[in-house]
């Protein structure tokens, strides 16, 4: 079996048997969305999809950091590094494993968001969901790269966020918000914003794989 | 076969390995002794590519260069660390199968069960490894270190936590692998009788 597939299967099996990351992240996202719900009611911020993406960004990074920290603390990251697979395969395997979990988390966040803030996307709800799934790719790539670098350090979970959030905010998240906002407002910006989002994803996935390979 | 010449490794200002020269032939069982902090574990971790050496004239495993052929070297080296890593959510056989699949070993399931039988864990193979005792984890770690048929075996205090039966199994297997031509480096505080040579490290130098 392809080593990337082996790593994805491992990641899913480990998470589904413990449910530590998904449950904690889903609860955190619920609390973040509830905080917005009660503190910003009747605020203009609710007219866009920024709250949705804030929740995905913060809890998604938390989930990826949790996965990476768990791997680092147990020493199993070293076990993976000892296997005779390329570093780019290791990165892609870990990134894709995290991505599957991120998709599950994002689905939960999307459902909570719609329950709490009503369906702002109208008939484009499934298109909005597709944008969320695509946006998670860049989030997973940057998060995995940042977490791999930072988690062996003291306070690694915080360093991961400090490193990843600024990079993601002005790239993937901005493009994704433009996409989903255009679905809400019905503007014609969607195609351009979506192309930008895909471009950022491609850059981060290939960049992450390349950096992993040369940093060995 | 391991060949090191003028092999250096430091962590920041601390020089851990100072120009080591070392030759270990196929079939040798070499015991590495030394006080705490003498560089024993660092030497094993740089040979297995987990840590990068600062510089060297020669660093080869079976003729492959440590820096340029790291993937080839990882496929040839088996490593048992002081605390063997494992996934507690996976069963013993799943842990071993994961390792075998990453090493592209065919029929990973039956190979994993075969190795678990060899280390005396077959009756616990479907139990979650999170419920294993320290000695069982050590046996699982040893099975992982040998299961991809390495030509060089690096063992960092392999007898930790093992009961008498476990030590017997491990010693028998070490002698078998040595006869098959595997180079074995054993970090231990005592030199076992079957060891062909003892090397003492002190402050990163062989004395």
Automatic annotation (TrEMBL), chain B:
Record CDD domains: ABC_DR_subfamily_A
UniProt protein name: ABC transporter ATP-binding protein
Pfam families: ABC_tran (PF00005)
Residues passing through the membrane, by range: none
ABC transporter domain residues: 2-207
Keywords attached to this entry: ATP-binding, Nucleotide-binding, Transport
Gene3D superfamilies (UniProt xref): P-loop containing nucleotide triphosphate hydrolases
